[in-house]
Amino acid sequence: MYHDMDSFLHQPAYPKIVFFEGKNFKGRSCKSSTDCPDLRTFFTRCNSVRVENGNCLLYEMRYYVGNQYFLKKGEYPDLQQCLGSKDLIRSCPTDPNVQRCPQGLFVCSGRL
Fold it and tell me: What are the Beta/gamma crystallin 'Greek key' domain coordinates in residue numbering (predicted)?
């Protein structure tokens, strides 16, 4: 049993992700550690990501549909290099171990 939320969120099963509209972690940002079925409510594009804890699974469409992009803990200053010139990240589940869509899975490498 966890006694405080901060300790609970630092466990590997609960990723902490920061999305940035601009490359190199610039522009507006959105920090998340919960399911995000529709990221359009937070930003229109995503060009860099920082995975602070755990792993991250991103989807190119809302509600966990479309190609999947798996990101390990680390920094991704130019997400378009990984996504093939796309800036359309639309959803992100809390538990990346749950595969919600059988479509393409791409593994991205960032810097630690």
Answer: 16-95
